Amino acid sequence: MIKYIVIIITILVLIFLIHSIIPTYYNKIFNTKVKKQTQSPGTIMLTFDDGPDKRYIFSLLEVLDRYGIKAIFFMVAENMNNNEDVVRLILEKGHKIGLHSWQHKNAMLYSYFYTKKDFENSYKIIRKFQKEKILYRPPWGHSNIFTNYFARKYNMDLIFWNVMAEDWSQNETVETISKKLLDRVKEHSIICLHDAGENSGGSVGAPERTINALDITIPKLQELGYSFIIDEVNY
Q: pLDDT tens per residue, the chain (235 residues)?
């Protein structure tokens, strides 16, 4: 009996390894088609995941406007669908949007059928706002064996990050977020922050701390000579 249990557990582990672990780390480490840093000298990129969230987005846009910064917003498609006016405002201000899945679920645990539904529904929603090639960032950077197939099918480019500041955590403050950004950002950084709170797994009020930290940090990064870009265009 124990022998059969061990065999079953081994099979399940192998399935999870093939379905989830290998695709995730292939994309994170080895897949050269996944964008993980900017290319132009002296450039960095500012990106936000999980929104849009009307509680925070207007304050965030004000800070970005104040310093003349353009950013990329990776949106949960359901949030996008429920906040079409916000999405259009973000685009009108010259920012770029991308997809961050349909419902912000972990792709490691997706079946084929849910993965298919995730991409189909996300694609339908974002096409209302954007016709060109779509940027896609999976939640937590997690993939499964079907992710790359559906990304190619819907003409999506995967883009990850190389700097985080754990800004979703209740343990972080304005000061610690700012310090982490200043310590970690360097040439070619793609910064991943979050503009929605508990709705997507962050702590209550976390985006407010992020916004205040950016108000402190952006001018310091500009003083260091970094250019904020989207699509390798300087701002």
A: 777 676 777 788 788 999 999 999 999 999 999 999 999 999 999 999 999 999 999 999 999 999 999 999 999 999 999 999 999 999 999 999 999 999 999 999 999 999 999 999 999 999 999 878 899 999 999 999 999 999 999 999 999 999 999 999 999 999 999 999 999 999 999 999 999 977 777 788 899 999 999 999 999 999 999 999 998 755 4
pTM for the whole thing?
A: 0.94
Domain span at 227: 2-234
Three-state SS string over 178-229 comes to HHHHHHHCCCCCEEEEECCCHHHCCCCCHHHHHHHHHHHHHHHHHHCCCEEE
CATH number of the domain that 105 lies in? Answer: 3.20.20.370
